[in-house]
TrEMBL record:
Organism of derivation: Streptomyces lannensis
InterPro entries associated with the record: GH, GH_1_N_CS, Glyco_hydro_1, Glyco_hydro_1_beta-glucosidase
Broad enzyme group: hydrolase
Family statement drawn from the similarity comment of this UniProt entry: Belongs to the glycosyl hydrolase 1 family.
Catalytic activity of the protein: Hydrolysis of terminal, non-reducing beta-D-glucosyl residues with release of beta-D-glucose
The protein, known as: Beta-glucosidase
Length: 487
């Protein structure tokens, strides 16, 4: 996949069509699917340590085996080909290729990604690599983790290794996946690895993740061919005030600052927003945290912005007894991930919920994409994650019917189509997720996959949604609903 602008859809095409050249893909993450946690020289990441800590993950589940993608990648790529996927977005396990997070790489680890990449190319599926999807080598966490500036420099060295290894075969590189989760859930609320709860460390981690991104873009650009494309993927919160009151507007502003603009400000605009700095000045000394030259490094140009969306974020000023952990969608914790905005309350947008208790609201994706296209019209967009968990099961006939997921995907793909019609430069869509997998602190209790995984046998069963998605890809259009175009 190269994120070139798709050709305009002919005027005679049905309203549900997508532009010619639109990229259709699916995504996974290394720790969630690979397994083989101790094979080939791989050492523990923070998620290995976290999942093996009693009480951290539901049912004591770990990613030791996960979906066993490490051993079954050939079968999984064959599935991708059968479904007609044009691209596969996967992440690289940092500790599989550079076990200590520093120094030379382990060839056995690199060989897995060489084999996976070659298998994808042979199948006609474009590989899209993410360098970091939350699995920091434990040795780097022991040395300070993301709150420690040196981690950003180590990440740039890792990016250089991967670009030199696969830069001739992979043309699209993403530095970080959802750095908000890494910083605010990992160091703020503690519901993600490494499980720390330190507000100052949260903001320091956010800055050093930004710096790591910029450093990595520089390292990639120094090695990759000019045709290669670089990106970052952000889980931008589509923030809405609960009411029209000034208090709720203030709550939305604060959450937009600490949830979105802490990343988009420095990465896209070259500066941290002043209101964010004011909101959090009592927590961290930004003057000493941000060094001369950091913002220029962080704001290196990227070729495409990855956007992950699942549900809108509805907020109000907290009232007595209602705090930030109420329905914020990020797991229960006595510690708020919303550093500097502990007095904001969260609400569900509606009562149409997924198995994660996330409100289904595709209008939020349309708004997010159109707002981004207006604020940064020169920057192409890619929906790099969108999907839903439901309580899937195998029927007596041996099939997995998931009509709720089909409805979810249809509605959200229609939101993408409408955003494109409204002028948003959206180049593609990656469904989350290809496979059922280890869902972080929820373990194996939640299924996001369009392919069912029987974890006792590792058997793969494409769900009804997989066949539906394959048909959308084949048509490059959404199917009619009740005989009518969904336009």
């Amino acid at each position: 996949m190269t994120a070139v602008r798709p050709e305009a859809t002919p005027l005679s095409a049905p309203a549900t069509s997508f532009p010619q050249g639109f990229t259709w893909g699916a995504a996974t993450a290394a720790y969630q699917v690979e397994g083989a946690a101790t094979e080939g020289g791989r050492t523990p990441s923070i998620w290995d340590t976290y999942s093996h800590t009693p009480g951290r993950v539901r049912n004591g589940d770990t990613g030791d085996i996960a979906a066993d993608h490490y051993h079954r990648y050939r079968d999984d790529v064959a599935l991708m080909k059968d479904l007609g996927l044009k691209a596969y977005r996967f992440s690289i396990s940092w500790s599989r290729v550079q076990p200590t997070g520093r120094g030379p790489a382990v060839e056995r680890g690199l060989d897995f990604y060489r084999r996976l990449t070659d298998e994808l190319l042979e199948a006609g599926v474009t590989p899209v690599a993410t360098l970091y999807h939350w699995d920091l080598p434990q040795e780097l966490e022991d040395a300070g983790g993301w709150p420690h500036r040196d981690t950003a420099y180590r990440f740039a060295e890792y990016a250089d290794i991967m670009a030199r290894t696969l830069g001739d075969r992979i043309g699209v590189w993403t530095t970080l996946n959802e750095p908000w989760c890494s910083a605010f859930l990992g160091y703020g609320s503690g519901v993600h690895a490494p499980g720390r709860t330190d507000p100052a460390a949260t903001l320091r981690a956010a800055h050093h993740l930004n710096l790591a991104h910029g450093q990595a873009i520089g390292a990639l650009r120094a090695v990759l061919p000019a045709s290669a494309q670089t990106s970052i993927t952000l889980n931008l919160h589509q923030v809405r005030p609960l009411t029209d009151s000034a208090d709720d507007a203030e709550a939305a502003r604060r959450i937009d600052a600490v949830g979105n603009r802490v990343f988009t400000g420095p990465i896209l605009d070259g500066a941290y927003p002043e209101d964010l700095l004011e909101d959090t000045a009592h927590i961290v000394d930004w003057g000493s945290l941000v060094h001369d030259g950091d913002l220029a490094e962080i704001s290196r140009p990227i070729d495409v912005l990855g956007v992950n969306y699942y549900s809108p974020t509805v907020v109000s000023l907290a009232t007595e007894g209602v705090g930030t952990t109420k329905n914020d969608g990020h797991g229960a914790s006595e510690h708020s991930p919303w550093t500097g905005s502990d007095h904001v309350a969260f609400h569900l947008a509606n009562d149409n919920l997924t198995a994660m208790n996330w409100a289904i609201d595709p209008s939020g994706l349309h708004t997010l994409l159109t707002d981004l296209s207006k604020s940064h019209p020169e920057l192409p967009l890619m929906v790099t994650e969108n999907g839903a968990a439901f309580d899937d099961y195998i029927s007596p006939e041996g099939v997995v019917n998931d009509p709720q997921r089909i409805a979810y995907l249809h509605a959200h793909l229609d939101a993408v189509r409408r955003a494109i019609a409204d002028g948003a430069d959206v180049r593609g869509y990656f469904l989350w997720s290809l496979l059922d997998n280890f869902e972080w602190s929820y373990g194996y209790s939640k299924r996001f996959g369009t392919v069912y995984v029987d974890y006792s046998t590792q058997r793969r069963i494409p769900k009804a949604s997989a066949h539906w998605y394959a048909d959308v890809i084949r048509r490059n259009a959404l199917p009619a609903v009740d005989g009518q175009n969904n336009g």
